[in-house]
């Protein structure tokens, strides 16, 4: 059984880490444990959790900036923002459904794992794009301040954004400062039915070339359709476009987009409420909240190649998939083996990208690298950077790079 | 200028080998890609931080990534420092060389390699100018968002080096938010690729680290950048306010109301006078400050947004509102703003500061800034990106009067410290370079700086790439 350490202050966390560094004892870093099982297996007898480092430290709506301790529940952050008509534009997903975990998602975990939702491919960008500053404890047990609380900052190196997506392998985040934005006043979705996957990918790309600020573009093939809106999506396959903004803008843009998309297939429109539900279901990968451990891949692809990648996989394995981010994000579930090599090889052949194994049975995780293997020169560079932040190698060892591959 | 900024003494053993080095480099590059004659080195003695000059050992202007790799490998083996350079428009001395270093310029690598509209990406060589990308995709209805005022000249490599921003970054973000990938040559000549046309990077986000690393991590030879669909229309509107305070308060209220225009530019009275005299843009000379607020979208959307903005401006006693009726008028409004630096340069020498402050501190910092310059007996003009709190006080002085110059440097340092103390930072877009190197300790603690320097050393253990920039010279370690 792993020991769970929950320091109540940054100083206490620093002490614990310094102690573990001195003895070379690994620590698995975590927040609320909603991504239990994600990543490569970590050999650590103790877990260091930010759960007791909680609370909003500073929030000025007029500056569009918030500072919160790393263990603050995401729900608390979202509630405070909603009170002021603001939100996290990168709409972080909730992993609990697909991972079959409970726990409380924390803001530190959101940034440590760079968790972004459907708006990521549009102007909003990823979680890391919103991270302005952070405090973290490095592997020497030193408290480091990086970045700041202003939108533009090029003073020295951007260590905060380096922390984003480092999955607890570089430092223990204690506090994060991030950009927040006014929540859109209105939203609507236009659905084009019955497109093939190839045509859907093309139409999504074409829509992004229009001056309409489409903020969501997803294609839901027939096989997953029933998982959305209680099975109420019309037609066979649904290609969904989200528009958001001032009410005037949304209705004007919806007209323009309808006029453009009309020739491609039957159209349906969803209003504000249904739009919210649909995109939350897309964000949280509703079709694969199936209570199983069937291998689930998150594939970051070159958007125009998405349908080719899925098509090529289907020829070899039992695969189910749907598309977010205009095709740039493919959620792919395997019915049998994870087919890692085959998937990664297809990805390379079709424009590049990378595949992350989000979930699988423990015996599979033990064999299949969860993260895309890196080019040796890049891996060596990453190893040197890890060494500079965590010289004793105590933070979640092997999580991103399996031990046998680590340089 | 007085030379308050120290330079390292050049290494005699490198200087002594000058001829050999030049002949060796000559063997690595096509003949016209190497510059070493005194007369030809003059344009490379400084960048847009004109107060300091250093003649480099030689300048290499490679034409391919392979040539860049060869030169770096050679310099690595022979212990020769390398200073990367784009167009040399850095305002913080980021591209200034030193006597025992070679300058590696990317200006010949200026081809757009691939425009991929379905994936909204362009792959370009590092020496392509910022404006060239937007120009190339404009006919298809796309643009590249970050728009530094130097965009006609500055290169995408330099933009990445400095993580440049511009007037429209309030909505579209800065370079790091619009960069998808780079090809990077490491100090030893190894070529790596980070990112690409897929959205999120695999592994650690090294791209975020490279962006804004000021030429210390490697030479960028290619970049993949995000293209965006151009808005249907855009319209700048000019607002004149009685005082800087009222203009500043108006900015905060617009943001608090949930309205994000694409740009909010601010000018105080001295800046209005300077820019108007130059650009004849019709700026209100009786105003204490003006804002240029640009909105985007369809005709209806722009009208709806403007109506809200005007209602807020009225609560702050706005004196003049000028909407433009034509593209010519819109261009004129921007001309005054975009030529602010040049216009100031016509009436005096100046140093351009680049601190960033939280929006709520704008009025306070503006007031303190004029107190500081008054105390030094200097004039200041403020022109900046108000939406994101990035201030550019232009401190006017006489470059031929050493005392005046020293005062300007000191006043500038005080203003930057003021920004940090107000919760902001030393630089929002121009970078640290040599200019703010010694102020880094004001913003960061010892452990913070040591951590940054250690990460820097992970890329360049011997500190050979742009060696005397960004970090204080003393206290460096790995
Ligand atoms: C009894 C038990 C045993 C476990 N054994 C293993 C095991 O052998 N192997 C294994 O891989 N997992 C194991 N886990 C799960 C492990 O805790 C998770 O992999 C990981 O910690 C997920 O983080 P999270 O769920 O807190 O998610 P989140 O809080 O959502 O965090 C997500 C990511 O961010 C990182 N993170 C979160 N907070 C911080 C912070 N403050 N600073 C820096 N990084 C942060 C995490 O490391 C994680 O990568 C076990 C969990 C339990 C309960
Ligand atoms: C009139 C004027 C207006 C300006 N307005 C703005 C503005 O609005 N916003 C803004 O952000 N900046 C502005 N600047 C500053 C400057 O233009 C930017 O910093 C710009 O990005 C520098 O680009 P450059 O190609 O000239 O790079 P350089 O000045 O040549 O170099 C800048 C830095 O990047 C490094 N570098 C250059 N190329 C590479 C490469 N290929 N690989 C690795 N490192 C490299 C250099 O070593 C140096 O540290 C302005 C400057 C002027 C003169």
UniProtKB/TrEMBL annotation, chain A:
Residue span, FAD-binding PCMH-type domain: 1-183
UniProt keyword Flavoprotein, yes or no: yes
PROSITE patterns (UniProt xref): FAD_PCMH
Keywords associated with the record: FAD, Flavoprotein
UniProt GO MF annotations: catalytic activity; FAD binding
Any Pfam family hit: FAD_binding_4
Protein name: 2-hydroxy-acid oxidase
Species annotation: Martelella endophytica
Upper taxonomic lineage: Bacteria, Pseudomonadati, Pseudomonadota, Alphaproteobacteria, Hyphomicrobiales
UniProtKB/TrEMBL annotation, chain B:
Cofactors demanded by this protein: FAD
Pfam families: FAD-oxidase_C, FAD_binding_4
Top-rank taxon: Bacteria
Lineage of producing organism: Bacteria, Pseudomonadati, Pseudomonadota, Alphaproteobacteria, Hyphomicrobiales
Protein name, as recorded: Glycolate oxidase subunit GlcD
Keywords, sorted A to Z: FAD, Flavoprotein, Oxidoreductase
Domain FAD-binding PCMH-type: 52-230
Organism encoding this protein: Martelella endophytica
Record InterPro entries: FAD-bd_oxidored_4_C (IPR004113), FAD-bd_PCMH (IPR016166), FAD-bd_PCMH-like_sf (IPR036318), FAD-bd_PCMH_sub2 (IPR016169), FAD-linked_Oxase-like_C (IPR016164), FAD-linked_OxidoTrans_Type4 (IPR051914), Oxid_FAD_bind_N (IPR006094), Vanillyl_alc_oxidase_C-sub2 (IPR016171)
PROSITE patterns per record: FAD_PCMH (PS51387)
GO terms assigned for molecular function: FAD binding; oxidoreductase activity
PANTHER family: GLYCOLATE OXIDASE SUBUNIT GLCD
């Amino acid at each position: 059984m792993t020991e769970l350490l929950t320091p109540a202050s940054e100083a206490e966390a620093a002490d614990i880490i310094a102690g573990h560094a001195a003895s070379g004892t690994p620590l698995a870093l975590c927040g609320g444990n909603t991504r239990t099982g994600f990543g490569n297996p970590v050999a650590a007898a103790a877990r260091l959790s930010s759960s007791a480092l909680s609370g909003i430290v500073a929030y000025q709506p007029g500056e569009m900036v918030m500072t919160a301790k790393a263990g603050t529940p995401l729900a608390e952050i979202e509630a405070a923002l909603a009170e002021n008509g603001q939100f996290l534009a990168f709409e972080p997903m909730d992993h609990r459904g697909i991972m079959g975990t409970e726990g409380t998602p924390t803001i530190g975990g959101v940034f440590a794992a760079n968790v972004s939702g459907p708006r990521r491919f549009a102007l909003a960008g990823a979680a890391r794009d919103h991270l302005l500053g952070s405090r973290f404890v490095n592997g020497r047990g030193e408290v480091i301040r990086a970045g700041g609380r202003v939108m533009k900052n090029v003073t020295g190196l951007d260590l905060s954004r380096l922390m984003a997506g480092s999955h607890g392998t570089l430092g223990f985040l204690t506090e994060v400062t991030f950009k927040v934005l006014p929540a859109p006043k209105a939203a609507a979705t236009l659905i084009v039915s019955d497109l093939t996957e190839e045509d859907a990918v093309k139409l999504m790309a074409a829509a992004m070339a229009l001056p309409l600020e489409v903020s969501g573009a997803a294609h839901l093939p027939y096989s997953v359709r029933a998982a959305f809106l209680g099975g109420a999506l019309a037609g066979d396959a649904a290609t969904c476009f989200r528009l958001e903004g001032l009410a005037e803008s949304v209705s004007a843009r919806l007209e323009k987009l309808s006029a453009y998309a009309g020739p491609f297939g039957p159209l349906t429109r969803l209003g504000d409420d249904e739009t919210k539900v649909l995109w939350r279901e897309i964000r949280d990968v509703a079709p694969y909240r199936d209570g199983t451990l069937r291998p689930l891949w998150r594939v970051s692809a070159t958007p125009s190649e998405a349908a080719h990648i899925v098509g090529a996989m289907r020829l070899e394995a039992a695969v189910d998939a749907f598309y977010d981010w205009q095709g740039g994000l493919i959620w792919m579930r395997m019915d049998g083996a994870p087919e890692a090599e085959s998937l990664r090889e297809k990805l390379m052949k079709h424009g590049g990208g990378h595949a992350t194994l989000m979930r699988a049975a423990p015996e599979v995780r033990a064999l299949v690298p969860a993260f895309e293997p890196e080019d040796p020169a890049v891996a060596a560079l990453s190893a040197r950077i890890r060494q500079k932040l965590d010289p004793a190698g105590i933070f979640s060892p092997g999580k991103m790079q399996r031990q046998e591959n680590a340089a | 200028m007085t030379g308050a900024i120290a330079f390292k003494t050049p290494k005699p053993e490198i200087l002594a080998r000058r001829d050999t080095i030049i002949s060796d480099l000559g063997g690595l590059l096509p003949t016209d890609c190497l510059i070493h004659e005194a007369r030809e080195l003059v344009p490379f003695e400084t960048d847009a931080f004109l107060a300091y000059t250093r003649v480099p050992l030689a300048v290499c202007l490679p034409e391919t990534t392979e040539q860049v790799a060869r030169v770096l490998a050679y310099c690595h083996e022979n212990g020769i420092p390398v200073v990367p350079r784009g167009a040399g428009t850095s305002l913080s001395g980021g591209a200034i060389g030193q006597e025992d270093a070679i300058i590696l310029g990317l200006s010949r690598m200026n081809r757009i390699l691939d425009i991929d509209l379905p994936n909204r990406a362009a792959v370009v060589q590092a020496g392509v100018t910022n404006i060239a990308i937007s120009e190339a995709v404009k006919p298809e209805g796309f643009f590249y968002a970050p728009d530094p005022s130097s965009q006609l000249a500055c290169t995408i490599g330099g933009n990445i080096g400095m993580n440049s921003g511009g007037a429209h970054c309030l909505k579209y973000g800065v370079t790091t938010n619009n960069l998808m990938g780079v090809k990077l040559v490491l100090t030893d000549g190894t070529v790596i690729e980070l990112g690409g046309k897929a959205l999120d990077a695999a592994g650690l986000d090294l791209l975020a680290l490279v962006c804004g690393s000021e030429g210390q991590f490697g030479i960028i030879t290619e970049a993949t950048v995000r293209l965006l669909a151009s808005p249907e229309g855009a319209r700048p509107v000019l607002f004149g306010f009685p005082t800087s305070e009222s203009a500043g308060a108006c900015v905060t209220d617009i943001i608090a109301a949930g309205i994000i225009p694409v740009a909010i530019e601010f000018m105080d009275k001295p800046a209005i006078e300077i820019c108007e005299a130059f650009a004849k843009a019709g700026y209100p000379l009786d105003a204490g400050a003006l804002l240029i607020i640009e909105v985007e979208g369809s005709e209806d959307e722009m009208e709806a947004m403007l109506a809200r903005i005007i209602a807020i401006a009225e609560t702050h006693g706005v004196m003049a509102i000028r909407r433009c009726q034509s593209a010519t008028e819109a261009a004129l409004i921007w001309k005054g703003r975009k030529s602010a630096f040049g216009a100031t340069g016509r009436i005096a020498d100046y140093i351009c500061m680049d601190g960033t402050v939280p929006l709520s501190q704008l009025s306070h910092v503006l007031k303190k800034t004029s107190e500081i310059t008054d105390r030094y007996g200097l004039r200041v003009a403020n022109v900046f990106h108000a939406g994101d709190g990035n201030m550019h006080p232009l401190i006017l002085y006489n470059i031929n009067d050493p005392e005046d110059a020293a005062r300007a440097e000191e006043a500038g340092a005080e203003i930057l410290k003021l920004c940090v103390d107000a919760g902001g930072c030393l630089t929002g877009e121009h970078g640290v370079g040599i200019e703010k190197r010694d102020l880094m300790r004001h913003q960061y603690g010892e452990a913070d700086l040591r951590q940054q320097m250690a990460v820097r050393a992970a890329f360049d253990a011997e500190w050979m790439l742009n060696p005397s920039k960004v970090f204080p010279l003393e206290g460096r370690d790995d």
